[in-house]
Amino acid sequence: MSLVDSIRDHVREHRSGMVSDLLFALVWVTIVELFFRFVDGPQWAYYLFMLAGILAYFGFFWSLELARERQ
């Protein structure tokens, strides 16, 4: 199996997860960018908000998984 076939199989198997990850990242970065465009905050706070996106990502998908289990 070639590298291209491996990548194609991986993308085919995880397509919906990859799309939701990308959408979450784009929405998070857009929100932080817009917020700091209107609020002239310090640079360290900007980076802290960007890093908080990692926690927000895992928290969001963890709570989504819990909600699906409860149904």
Q: How does this structure look, described?
A:
The structure is a single chain. This protein is mainly α. It has a domain at about 25-70. The protein has two helices and no strands. Keywords: Membrane, Transmembrane, Transmembrane helix.
List its salient traits.
transmembrane helix; 71 residues; single chain; mainly alpha
Topology (elements, then pairings):
Layout lengths: L2 H36 L4 H28 L1
Proportion of beta-strand residues: under 5%
Segments where pLDDT lies below 50 for 5+ residues? none
Number of helices, where a helix is a run of at least 4 consecutive DSSP H or I residues: 2
Q: Biggest β-sheet, characterized?
A: none
Helix content: over 70%
Radius of gyration: 17 Å
In one word, what is the shape?
Answer: flat
The H-and-E topology, N to C, reads as HH
Number of strands: 0
* Distance N to C terminus: 40 Å
> Would you tell me the structural class of the helices and strands?
mainly alpha
- Overall average pLDDT: 89
Offer a concise description of the structure.
With 71 residues, the protein is mainly α. The chain contains 2 helices and no strands.
